[in-house]
Amino acid sequence: MIRKDLSWIEVSQKALSQNIRILKSTLGSKTKLSVSVKANAYGHGIVETSRIFLRNGADGLCVNSFEELLKLKNESIKCPILIIGYVPPRQIKQAIKLKADLFGFNYDYLKIISSEAKKIKKHASIYLKIDTGMSRQGILADQISDLIKKIKKLPYLNITGLSTHFATADGKINNKEFLKQLNSFQKSAEIVQASYNSVILCCANSAASLTYPQARLDMARIGISAYGYYPSIETKKIWKGKPLIPALSFKTIVTQIKDIPVDSLVGYGGTFKAKKQMRVAILPVGYYDGLDRKLSNKGEILVDGKKAKIIGRICMNLTIVDITAIDGVKIGDEAVIIGRQGKEQITADDLAKQIGTINYEVLARLRENLNKYYL
């Protein structure tokens, strides 16, 4: 298929659909599935990806901000949406009007939400966020009893759910820190349920959902696995279900081919020197698009079904690859940064390993306004 774009993203609807069905089957009928579509759906495009998830059985969505909520609401996406990030006071009233669920992570913030809800005489739906051991967002678990006593006096708050986030669920099975967090959450749940008996218990992320059945509870918040990737190598090894399928391909085209003589310097700083005459291809993609600069002189890009090494430093909008051993490359040929071409494949995991990061970052840093095609 011929694209007019210099660089673009393709998303497999089949892969996203199958991943959701696998996850729904794993969770079972008693656990609802809320899929995280924050960070532009991990680079996959928040609106269309959300629609695909919902068509295939997702019960709700998680976003990070009011702005992300608005993108979905403006596209008439109707399902429970939980904002897991901070909503500034100026946006709380509108978030309540749009029927979003909000994280309540301390008493002072809950007071603000209550005050804003009172102004419009509408109840805010709150998921209390408990810090069970990650030291990030949330109230400390040993303070939950006092919090419940205080918030009972605040008007216009509906305590809908109770949540936490695991720091080590993607480690080895039965690791002590994870089990300690889960035990702390369950104790907090008993305290909260004594006052709010219909509260939704929601704590399992992708790793916990795949490997710890006891953590799935009423609702799971799943992110990376919905897109076909595992949270860690350990999780992938432990997982015994159907394999997840990466859904995203990141592509560009060849815009110039040239022969360079021996001893030619390539790219900024002359970090690569040709030891022989070489044939190179110029690609109109760079770190602005999300191709990490740390892949300079060591990453690979698929050209004509073969791996072409990146030589020289990746530029803001251009990258140079060695095609000396690849015959028949032409101007306009497709080049694959993430995805499959012929018998070869490069995944976000491959790139993450090369640059010392995680697959989440590789996907989330893809330029948001790259055109996306849902195949």
Mean pLDDT: 96
Which range best describes the helical content: under 10%, 10-25%, 25-40%, 40-55%, 55-70% or over 70%? 25-40%
Identify the overall geometry: elongated
- Indicate the CATH class of the largest domain: Alpha Beta
Beta strands, count: 21
Strand proportion, as a percent range, falls in 25-35%
What structural class should be given to the helix and strand makeup? alpha/beta
Largest sheet: 8 strands, parallel, barrel
Q: What would you give as the CATH superfamily of the largest domain?
A: Alanine racemase
Q: For the CA atoms, what is the radius of gyration?
A: 24 Å
Say what the CATH topology of the largest domain is: TIM Barrel
Can you give a write-up of this model?
With 375 residues, this protein is an alpha/beta fold. It has 2 domains: 13-238, Alanine racemase (TIM Barrel); 248-346, Lyase, Ornithine Decarboxylase, Chain A, domain 1 (Beta Barrel). It is 30% helix and 25% strand. It is built from 12 helices and 21 strands. Helix 1 crosses helix 3 (46-55) and helix 5 packs across helix 6 (107-120).
